[in-house]
Amino acid sequence: MFSVQFILRNWYRLLVKMQQQLKCCFFLGTILIAFFIICWDSRRERTFYQQTASSLDLTHLKMRQEHRRRIIRELCSASSSVNFTEKLIKFDQIPNKALDHLIVDDLHGVIYCFVPKVACTNWKRVMIVLSQNLKAPDGALYLDPLDIPRKIIHNSTLHKTFNKLWRRFGRYSRPLMHHKLKNYTKFLFVRDPFVRLISAFRDKFVKPDEYFYSHYGSTMLQRYANISKPPDSAKEAFAAGIRLSFTHFIKYLLDPKTEEEKPFNEHWQQMYRLCHPCQIEYDFVGKLETLDEDTEQLLKILGLDDYIHFPPGYENRTAVDWEREWFANISVADRRKLYHLYETDFKLFEYDKPETLLDE
């Protein structure tokens, strides 16, 4: 009898203990389920907001592109108050040589108008990778734009341009050009005109550059620095402490004799004269000031965002807030003349008129 009572009592205790454990497990399970539901809802909410933000960003970028393109269309129309060379001419009236900045990639159906001093080195790298017409020393095609040696990027033989179409096909080239312009995706990148000039001067004249010294620098020194016999080379000039100033460069640009003798070099030629936006309706207008966003958007439009990694920008890039310092020794009268010279670029590509520089 005693043993039966003992067994029953222990059995009861065991049942009570198991019931307590079940309650504890149920309580813990309820907490875990509630935590999972909260995390799931939070994740769904975060995903929803991320998708919404991404959608809003995409909408903003599309609207920005349409706005840039619309401004160009409006200013290029016959009814606009902006008048400039080339505005109303037809595409077929543009000399073939003036089409040398239009790089064509037939493989992907892309046309890129390169503007010097506007990330064109990296975009040329991308075009070389896309064209698949250049092999590395080991015989493999270049797949990463950064792998392409800088010294060969600007080699004109590597790039297929509209001007080369004319050289190859002669009078049959224009129908080919029209076909490509109609069916290919066309893009260009632009930059604040005054900042681009500063960048060009820094790149070509602040450090010794034999080509630019012999073709342009020595002439500037003769005409605007009162040096009747400049040194024969940039190396000799720098060794003698003879440097071209930004003021000399601006004088050169404003001198009517400059373009009477030969066209502007592409590094300071007006952007609209390089890319002809009134005759070519570009599908995408990028800006150096929004390079990262524009590049990401463009690569997605081209379907190349998983294939091409755009090289990072130059860390020592000329900035807009440098303008006041660089133009400090340029007279207000010359600043206004310079603005007039590049006014079409300012307006077509919607850059603010530098009022503080022009009204001092």
UniProtKB/TrEMBL annotation:
Which UniProt keyword terms apply here? Carbohydrate metabolism, Glycoprotein, Golgi apparatus, Membrane, Signal-anchor, Transferase, Transmembrane, Transmembrane helix
Record GO terms (molecular function):
sulfotransferase activity
Main location, first listed in the record: Golgi
Q: What is its EC number?
A: 2.8.2.-
Give the residue spans that cross the bilayer.
20-40
Signal peptide start and end residues? none
Protein's name according to its UniProt entry: Carbohydrate sulfotransferase
> In which organism is this protein found?
Carassius auratus
